[in-house]
Amino acid sequence: MTTTTTQIKQGKTGIFDRIESQVRSYSRSFPKLFGKAKGATIYGHDGREYIDFLAGCSSLNYGHNDPDMQAALIDYVTSDGIAHGLDMFTEAKEGFLLAYERLILRPRNMDYKLMFTGPTGANAVEAALKLARKVTGRTNVIAFTNGFHGMTLGALAATGNAGKREGGGTPLNGVHRAPFEGYFGPEVDTADMLEQMLDDPSGGVDAPAAILVEPVQGEGGLNAASGAWLKKIEKIAKKHGALFILDDIQAGCGRTGTFFSFEEFGLDPDIITQAKSLSGMGLPFALTLIKPEHDIWKPAEHNGTFRGNNHAFVTARVALEKFWSDDSFSKSIAKKSAHLETRLGAIAERYGFSLRGRGMMQGIDTQDGDTAGDICAKCFEKGLIIETSGGHDEVVKVLCPLTIDMDLFDKGLDIIEDAFEAILAKDSPRVAAE
Ligand SMILES: Cc1ncc(COP(=O)(O)O)c(C=O)c1O
Known about the structure:
Blueprint: H1 3-10, H2 15-19, H3 26-29, E1 34-38, E2 41-44, E3 49-52, H4 55-58, H5 67-78, H6 91-105, E4 113-116, H7 121-136, E5 140-144, H8 153-157, H9 162-166, E6 175-178, H10 190-199, E7 208-213, E8 216-217, E9 223-224, H11 227-239, E10 243-247, E11 271-274, E12 287-290, H12 310-323, H13 328-351, E13 354-358, E14 361-365, H14 369-381, E15 384-385, E16 387-389, E17 395-398, H15 406-424, H16 429-433
Helix pairs in contact: 5-12, 6-12, 10-11, 13-15, 14-15
């Protein structure tokens, strides 16, 4: 390690290396001290600008420090708005619930109760699994290969990745792993396979309390399930008396173009989990949506000190009002998604790679973790923050803010193109033409 890198890694004071736990990870991929951020740009302590194609792992779909959310939050804080209220009724919560009902539930004809869990996605998943087990009186949960649902033990049991699972340090029980769509290639219908196993009294799969699935697997390599496959899974869940749970924590809040990532498929999940971009500006905030007939919790049966973050209620309400009052945001995401597909598609084709994902969560499968890691490291050198995804970290994954302007979007995509060229040493037509 060079002296310069060491200094950057340690920040100005060396405090990170001195007392922060080794568990940190993103700071290893992006060894820089950051101070400010606006829109799709993050600023280093030295003033260097970085384009953000990570967006807090899809927690910053509306960009950093949206001015309207920022203003509403500042106003709320300086006027002594309640910061912490356990799960008591507050004006901030009322404002969010009214906006969610008016702008999200009613227009989609959705009938759900909103359960505010602890503030991370894993909390929302834990609540969903606990409730499904309580409703059905069963313990087994079916989750999928390459699925990622969080790091607490219940959610971790449903997560596929071996490295993450080992960190649990205890047997992770109560989950049957089923193959996600396409896991054995296009010829094998994994939904039919699951159905056959469940139908067969000797299939070895215990009657499930729930089937838990991500419509687009974010951490597991940007595997986008088709509507037809999800519909089959939903039907299997209903047929076998299991709750159908969609984990929309990473793919939701506009990431694929609509507020929920599965809207176009006509699904009717029993439970939906949301977190990440729900607060609008990166504040911790999670939600478990429950069909009213399943809302059988006893008061405080699933508790927690930080359920319902009042500051997040304020910013989330502004996010809903600003971006989801009409379809203009969705249309702009669709346009950007098509552009992303064209540009990534051209790079993928040049190197014989394939495209993964859907909407504004697409990436290139380089088939090799080292290659994808080197490409992301090269991007960082050139001023772009971007990460890998997949079982072998083999996918270069674009997750930029959905509000990014087209010039900056293209600038970031140019950096990706140049990084592929630098690492794979093939001439890029764009660079050659310049
Ligand atoms: C689909 C999905 N579910 C759950 C989680 C866990 O969320 P959190 O990290 O906020 O606990 C994640 C995080 O990446 C996720 O992508």
